[in-house]
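Re: [ENG-882] Designed sequences occasionally contain unexpected residues at chain ends

Forwarding the minimal case from QA. Structure tokens:
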């Protein structure tokens, strides 16, 4: 009986060790300052569309995931410095960024559109924008597009977070903001945004948003497979419908 107990105990320890060795934990990087895609709730927990999609992907990959937040300006360097394993923070897939990281298939599609006060006749053509102050978040597709397209005609004011851009819009320090349509859509529903509206047509119609991983990381294909699964089984739609009354896939 004594020998049996020893064998049983050894087997249990080995099993526990094996299970622990097999359990994989991944860290997902998120800015947590870009509602409704990523932000923090009243208790300080990271929430939002990006976080929900990340959790769903981790469940499909059968791995534990934790969140690591990062300032937007340094979020790609933080990924490459291995502070987290993948970056799911509404990151536009651009040729410049492809030089630094690998992207998964897009997990949503985006547009860029101006917002300005409702009581202002705000035109978005080049002549009408001349001399205007336009706010946008630094190191974003919107910021790059503004500077490349209107940089010599408008004053482009860059912000560390989208929330700070909205604050300057409501205080009158900028004439308008150019940002992701769906982030603007969410803000326009708030008390702070109720006196503002979309102006003109979207200026970029085909902005694709992907998950970033380090160059050559096989995690990319695992994430792609998991993304296909959550789209196929309806998980993606449930998350989408939690935030938007239309599909952004």
């Amino acid at each position: 009986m004594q020998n049996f107990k020893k064998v049983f105990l050894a087997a249990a320890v080995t099993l526990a060790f094996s299970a622990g060795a097999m359990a994989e934990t991944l860290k997902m990087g998120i800015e947590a300052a870009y509602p409704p895609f990523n932000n923090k709730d009243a208790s300080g927990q990271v929430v939002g569309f990006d976080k929900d999609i990340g959790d769903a992907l981790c469940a499909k990959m059968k791995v534990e995931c934790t969140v690591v937040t990062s300032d937007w300006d340094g979020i790609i360097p933080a990924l490459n410095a291995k502070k987290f394993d993948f970056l799911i923070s509404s990151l536009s897939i651009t040729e410049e960024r492809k030089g630094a990281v690998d992207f998964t298939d897009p997990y949503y599609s985006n547009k860029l559109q101006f917002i300005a006060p409702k009581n202002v006749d705000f035109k978005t053509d080049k002549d009408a924008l001349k001399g205007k102050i336009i706010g946008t978040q630094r190191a974003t597709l919107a910021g790059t597009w503004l500077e490349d397209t209107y940089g010599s005609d408008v004053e482009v004011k860059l912000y560390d977070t989208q929330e700070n851009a909205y604050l300057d819009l409501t205080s009158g320090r900028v004439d308008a903001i150019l940002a992701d349509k769906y982030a603007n859509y969410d803000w326009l529903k708030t008390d702070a945004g109720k006196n503002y509206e979309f102006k003109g047509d979207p200026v970029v119609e085909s902005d694709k948003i992907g998950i970033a991983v380090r160059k050559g990381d096989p995690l990319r294909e695992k994430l792609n497979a998991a993304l296909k699964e959550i789209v196929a089984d309806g998980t993606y739609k449930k998350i989408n419908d939690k935030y938007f009354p239309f599909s952004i896939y």
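QA comment: On inspection the terminal residues look reasonable. The two ends are 61 Å apart (CA to CA). Proposing we downgrade this to a documentation issue.
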